[in-house]
Amino acid sequence: MEDDLAEFCRQERRRLVAALVLMCGSLPMAEDLAQETLARVCRDWKRIRRLEAPGAYAHRVAVNLATSAFRRRAAERRASARLDPPAHAAPEPDSATAIAVRDALQRLRPEQRKVLVLRYFLGYSVADTANVLTMPEGTVKTHALRGLSTLRGILGTSVTAADMEVRGA
Amino acid sequence: MPDIVDLLNAAVPDIPSESDLDALARRAGELRRRQHALRALPALAVVLALSLVAVNRIPGEPDRLTPIPATEGSLSASPQPLTATLAPPAGSRPTPQATGTPNVSTGTAPVPGPAVTRPASTASSPRPAPSPTAFPAAESCRVDISGLEAGQSRSCSFTATAEGGYNMRQTGEVAAVTVAGENYRVDVTRGGRTSTHGYDEYAPCKDAVVEPGDQVTVTVYKLKENVTDFQVGAGEGYNCSRTSD
Questions:
Q1: Is the distance from CB of A130 to CB of B240 less than 8 angstroms?
Q2: CA distance A147 to chain B (A)
């Protein structure tokens, strides 16, 4: 593997896994998706290395793979709910805040979750978020506002963002 | 009040730092081989179509100009109606969704893309070369992989009468990953130039890629990894906001 590609993979992997954990709620799934994302980057590296922002390309691929994963998990949940009783998940060795926020994120609509992760975790602008998610900028802002509002309702506290504020009741 | 940035950062668990670069390289190789195999299929379709034309020619009769598919990458040809060369598998059910009747074909090769006509012959009784014909007019079309075997494809084509985009959606109940970027493509020909969406872009949808007058072909490929059904539609009403039929 070429040195610049290996370096790119090392640098981007943690950020990808972290963003995908927030989007999917599962560390094993996030690691699988990140690995698949980087494999596609490796396959197309000759073209991607010339892009202005190869990292943004990787994030776009990751978001699309995560979108497929959302649909797959929704189908799995419907299928297993008919066949098996719900199983209790093994407790994760994480803080209560981490678990609460990840749980709250999973209750958001996928579009809202993706917007919040891209905007406020990966630090994308509204325009760049709109470009990655192929949606209008106005839709990005709407998803962000509604996502923050829903998080407020779930977490029971007001949640601020640098560019907007959602107040408690 | 907690800031969303702090909340999200606090929500990230400990992530193992090691990255298996050898496994990455192996998986990249698998993806590259699959991509090359899929891209070679249009050339095979050309060979197959040429062999069928040779078999059908009757000595002594004027040349029957059968539209033949162009090789992938041809940007100057006008689109032609697709010719189905292979019988559809049992149980296949293309679902064109349009006011008109889009062409729908099924085969083991992907849609060969815009077709060309051969020049008129210079025989002693000259006749004008047939003019290119466009796909049937329609607002949209949609195809799915239901009933296809691994390695088969299904396509639909239309001449757009309205603006639109495209949208891929899984429809099955059983979980499986749709290999975004390799499971489907949407070819849009405008002014003699063809843009291909979906195949290498890993985008499950896009708004505003179709304009009235565009020649549009939607192709889906059944891969062995696909256990669940999925569908791809293009044209009016197909965009990133669409979540159901």
A1: no
A2: 11
Angle among Cα A63, A97, A89 to the nearest 5 degrees reads 70
* CB-CB contact of B50 with B68 (8 Å): yes
Q: Are A57 and A51 in contact (CB under 8 A)?
A: yes
Q: Is the dihedral of CA B184, B150, B37, A29 positive or negative?
A: positive
Q: Which of A22, A31, A60 sits opposite B12 (nearest CB)?
A: A22
**Which chain B residues are closer than 8 Å to A117 by Cβ?**
8
- Angstroms from A44 CA to nearest CA on chain B: 8
pLDDT, one tens digit for every residue, chain B (245 residues)? 678 888 898 888 888 766 677 777 788 888 877 777 776 666 666 677 677 666 655 454 444 433 333 333 333 333 333 333 233 333 433 444 444 566 777 655 443 333 333 333 333 333 333 334 589 999 999 999 888 888 888 999 999 999 999 987 766 543 334 454 467 888 999 998 888 887 544 466 788 899 999 999 999 888 766 656 778 899 999 987 765 66
DSSP 8-state secondary structure symbol assigned to residue A122: S
Instruction: For residue B222, give the nearest of B151, B170, B156, B155 by alpha carbon.
Output: B151
Q: Max CA-CA distance within chain A?
A: 55
Instruction: Find the helix or strand (DSSP H, E) in which B187 lies.
Output: strand B184-190
Tell me whether A109 touches chain B (CB under 8 Å). Answer: no
Q: Please report, for residues A22, A28, A36, A87, A133, the alpha-carbon distance to residue A110 in angstroms, rounded to integers and kept in the order given.
A: 11, 19, 20, 23, 11
Ramachandran region, residue B81 (left: φ > 0; alpha: ψ -120 to 50; beta: rest): beta
ipTM of the complex: 0.79
Q: For strand B184-190 and strand B215-221, is the pairing parallel, antiparallel, or unpaired?
A: antiparallel
* Cβ atoms of A89 and A103 closer than 8 Å: no
Measured CA to CA, the distance from residue A150 to residue A159 in angstroms comes to 10
Cα A26 from Cα A36, distance rounded (Å):
15
Give the integer Cα–Cα distance in Å for A39 and A29: 15
CB atoms within 10 A of CB B24: 23
User: Which of B1, B3, B4, B20 is the best residue to mutate to test the A interface, defined by the most A CB atoms within 10 Å of its own CB?
Assistant: B4
Kindly report the nearest CA distance between residue A40 and chain B, in angstroms: 6
Residue written as token pair 């994480």:
A94
